[in-house]
Amino acid sequence: MNAPSIIPAVPAVRSAEERVGRLDWPALAAELDGHGCAVLSKLLTPAECAAIAALYPQEAHFRSHVHMARHGFGQGEYRYFRYPLPDLVGGMRTALYPHLAPIANAWNGRMGEATRYPAEHAAFLTLCREAGQTRPTPLLLQYGAGDFNCLHQDLYGDLAFPIQVAILLSEPGRDFTGGEFVLTEQRPRMQSRAEVVPLRQGDAVAFAVHNRPVQGSRGPYRVNLRHGVSRLRSGQRHTVGIIFHDAR
């Protein structure tokens, strides 16, 4: 039996590349540098959001199902996609990566890290496989009233790409209330800084997975970030997470 493809279909990639290429990447890079996150407005249409959210009960698309409360992660649940990824998810993963890799490389340079990331996602996935990280990490999350996601970092092995993307598939105020995306940043010898990111349906947030550099009076220094979702007050919320490294 042939192994499932980890490379998305060419038409899906081209469509995503056209859409992603229209974004103002210099401004987004400045937001990521300044705040550790940036909003990619209207990345998906409402119809595309609904189509991805509708995959959640279809087990054939997923490799595992996690109930957060069983592991102390919060309340709610999520499923990791299996390869091959749905065309839209795989296309976005492939199209977003080349715009984020230069930012990631600049961050590593400023933090004194030797790791550099290749220009194309396929080459980076080859490095993941060589490191024994072969399981896909894009995931679909589902929250109901009272659910939340504890502050955490999505690190699945020794090789981790330092930026990831989450796309909100539901409409705040109509489909759910509460459930804000939250990012916290811990700087040395300082109290944590919190960032609440407002999103609408189809908006994405790109954010630091683990560390990022901040310019201080004596040069750049490293800060530590975690992300989560605040308690849902009502309704149901779906999000697709695009993580660029694979897991062991």
UniProtKB/TrEMBL annotation:
Taxonomy, superkingdom: Bacteria
InterPro entries, per the entry: DUF2086
Name listed for the protein in its UniProt record: Proline hydroxylase
